[in-house]
Amino acid sequence: MLIQNAELGGTRVVDVRCDNGRVTRIGERLAASPGELCIDAAGGALLPGLHDHHLHLLALAAAESSVVCGPPRVTTMRQLAQVLRAQAGSGWIRGIAYHESVAGDIDRRVLDQLVADRPVRIQHRSGKLWMVNSAAAELLQIDRYRHLEGVECDATGVANGRLFRLDHWLRTMLPNEDAPTLARVSRQLASYGVTGITDATPSNSEHNASIYTRAVDSGQLLQRLLLMGDLALKKPDHPDVGLGACKILLDENRLPQLDSLTGLIRAAHDQQRPVAIHSVTRTELIFALSSLIAAGKFPGDRIEHASVTPDEALPLMQQAGVAVVTQFGFIRERGDQYLDDVEPEYQQLLYRGQSFLGAGVPLAGSSDAPYGSHDPWFVMRAAVERTTASGRRVAAKEVLSPEQALALFTTDPRKPGSGTLVVEQGVVADFCLLDRPWISARGRLDCADVLATVRGGELIYERPA
């Protein structure tokens, strides 16, 4: 492949040749070889391929056939009833993105009033809670599983249909559900310039890994993939599907013993795996950092989300040697709700950006799709603008420059936030080619500017003429 007239580094226009998956030559007016695929960049910026450092691929694909049950599309109980009852068929209804601002903490009895004649399961937008109606509860036999941690019961001891952190169990109870096809979302990601993704699903298993490897081999999945999971997850036997960090979930209302978490982190390090610790509250963050410091530094350790970060956490992050992988897109998508719910003195601590960089904490970006938009350019714009859907500004001092926002998605997937990738001779030929110079694109940060996407020297997306 020969990419001609491409802007590199915002300063020069050159030709870039790729062979056997790597950049083999960069120069001016390179002659095309017989049969070589040539792409005329016409002065457009040639960027490293983008990497989304935290999403949930199967859930993203399943969301394509799910009904949205939360803001801004659904804001009232009446609207929730309407969208659920409008679903065709007689089988399962799968809802996503619910928030309690719609109708409070709903349970099976509330859902029965909305839909009683077919099974319904709705996921909270946080991803940690499923709510089912009685028809679903009967199929899942949840009254038989009241002993499971995460099955919530009412005052009489009856399971109320609220299931916390039980995704893996749900999959075992629904064995006949086919894995969703990944082709559509993978093509969408390619159209955004995404050449790699890290799947941060904590319950990833060998079964999930086999789904992904088959999807790569069949051409459904176009991106390179790193799989997070627990310590039992083994390295997939595939060159494009790698083993990522050990994912650890923290819930403030049921934190483990500090020694227990420290031991788990050390066990991961002993396996030569970093850890990725889910921390969305101040308490979870400080607890995670304390355990990381006690366990000792390891390259690639990371905090997921860091939704609320007090100033006193910044030196602890430095001491722990961790990166932060956060989701600035939530500022745009959920910011109005945050500003309504979060006390004013803590609003400046939401999804910080410049403070991390100023403290020397490596910072990387992600979508957390399907819980946020999987368009990385949307996330970049949110990091630069920090405005909500209604136009309110969230922690203006935390804004990033367009270059800093781009860097969120162009760092080493195994050490997010460290070592921004560049297009140079010898590197893997993963590119995002824009239709305009960076000086023009930086003010837009728009996925519509992506002209082509290359992974391993192969064209995986080209914008239709």
List the helices and strands and how they pair.
Blueprint: E1 2-8, E2 12-19, E3 22-27, E4 38-40, E5 46-48, E6 50-55, H1 57-63, E7 67-68, H2 77-85, E8 93-98, H3 100-103, H4 108-114, E9 120-124, E10 129-132, H5 134-140, E11 151-153, E12 159-164, H6 167-173, H7 183-191, E13 194-199, H8 206-218, E14 224-229, E15 241-249, H9 258-270, E16 275-279, H10 282-295, E17 302-305, H11 313-320, E18 323-326, H12 329-341, H13 344-347, H14 354-358, E19 363-365, H15 376-385, H16 402-407, E20 431-434, H17 438-441, E21 450-455, E22 458-462
Parallel strand pairs: 1-4, 6-13, 7-8, 8-9, 13-14, 14-15, 15-16, 16-17, 17-18, 18-19
Antiparallel strand pairs: 1-2, 2-3, 5-20, 9-10, 10-12, 11-12, 20-21, 21-22
Outline the structure in words:
InterPro entries: Amidohydro_3, Metal-dep_hydrolase_composite, Metal_Hydrolase. This is Hydrolase. Keywords: Hydrolase. 30% of the residues lie in helices and 24% in strands. It is of the alpha/beta class and 465 residues long. The two termini are 19 Å apart. The protein has three domains: 94 residues, Roll (Urease, subunit C, domain 1), CATH 2.30.40.10; 250 residues, Alpha-Beta Barrel (TIM Barrel); 108 residues, Diaminopimelate Epimerase, Chain A, domain 1, CATH 3.10.310.70. The chain has 17 helices and 22 strands. Helix 9 packs across helix 10, helix 10 packs parallel to helix 11 and helix 12 packs across helix 15. A hairpin with a 5-residue loop joins strand 11 and strand 12. 45% of the residues are buried. The chain has an eight-stranded parallel β-sheet. A six-stranded mixed β-sheet has the order 7-8-9-10-12-11. Strands 3-2-1-4 form a four-stranded mixed β-sheet, with no helix packed on it. The longest helix has 14 residues.
